[in-house]
Amino acid sequence: MKLDPHIHSIYSGDSRSKPVDIIKQAKAIGLDIIAISDHDSIKGSSLAIDIAKNIKNILVVPSIEITTDKGHIIGLGVKTLINKNLSPEETVENIHDEGGVAIVPHPFSPYRSGIFFKHKETMNRLTDFNTSKDISSKDNNLKDNTSRDNSLKDSYNNVRIDAVEVLNARYIFGYSNYKANKLADNKDLAKIGASDSHFLESIGDCYTEITDIDNEPSIDDVIEAIKSKKTVAKGSRTSNKLIAKEVFNKKIRKIY
């Protein structure tokens, strides 16, 4: 099953793609599952889900790309609006509380709000099972060490991300994808491929192959597959010529 979990629509403010056209393009190129992950908006995602109810062989997973105070995090499987400008830890907790998985897009990109580019401590907190020795040592009121350790583990697991984009089609330089892939290996995170599409022609350039999943998957099946790391990132970078053309068109539209 081919999933593109990071597509932007007109409701992102920086894309011209309408939800209905996104679905048509996804089907035309052979994608099975998509998610419209607009910036701090669920309008495009909700509309696409309604449209897809009448279309066979395409599943739309609810999603949103949330702006934290240190960068972006995708809440795949999230149907409700999550407030922006919270800490990454609060954002991940909110995503998990909504039943979604937390994916860090373009984690090491210096020019696209990559959350791990400048914030190593945040990266450690979001990728480790237990990252705070200070809390553990100060918590002298808990006499039962087992109970204390389990409580702390549950707390930190709830702010641990589930996946990172290791193939983002809009990266100009491959080094950022390389670092993300290395992080996923070291921290045992699911690997995600995504187009980060802002125009129709780029949808599916990078995508996630989900292995061992039902032929007619549900949203829950997709979420569980990512949690179980049954993912393979595939695809190639979007043509720089297409990206340059889109940037040029955006500037022309602003002028006129």
The global form is: globular
Tally of structural domains: 1
**Overall helicity:** 25-40%
Average residue pLDDT? 87
The secondary-structure class comes to alpha/beta
- Indicate the CATH class: Alpha Beta
CATH topology: TIM Barrel
Q: How far do the termini sit from each other?
A: 42 Å
CATH architecture: Alpha-Beta Barrel
Strand content: 15-25%
Q: Biggest sheet: strands, sense, closure?
A: 5 strands, mixed
Q: How many helix segments?
A: 9
CATH homologous superfamily descriptor: Metal-dependent hydrolases
Spatial arrangement of strands, main beta sheet: 3-2-1-9-10
SSE string, helices as H and strands as E: EHEHEEEHEHHHEHEEHEH
Total strands: the figure is 10
Write down the oligomeric state. Answer: single chain
Describe the structure.
- This protein is of the alpha/beta class and 256 residues long.
- It has a single domain, classed as TIM Barrel (Alpha-Beta Barrel).
- 37% of the residues lie in helices and 18% in strands.
- It is built from 9 helices and 10 strands.
- The chain has helices spanning 19-28, 43-52, 88-97, 120-127, 133-138, 145-157, 175-187, 219-227, 240-255; strands at 2-7, 33-36, 59-60, 65-67, 72-76, 101-104, 163-168, 190-194, 206-210, 231-235.
- Strands 3-2-1-9-10 form a 5-stranded mixed beta sheet. It has a 5-stranded mixed beta sheet with strand order 4-5-6-7-8.
- Helix 1 (19-28) links the parallel strand 1 (2-7) and strand 2.
- Helix 1 crosses helix 2.
- The radius of gyration is 18 Å and the shape is globular.
